[in-house]
Amino acid sequence: LVLVSGAAEIAGGLGLLHPSTRGWAGLGLMALYVAVFPANVNQALHQIPVNGQTVPPLLLWGRLLLQPVFIAWAWWCSRPAVDR
Question: Hey, how many other C-beta atoms are within 10 angstroms of the C-beta on 50?
Answer without folding.
Answer: 11
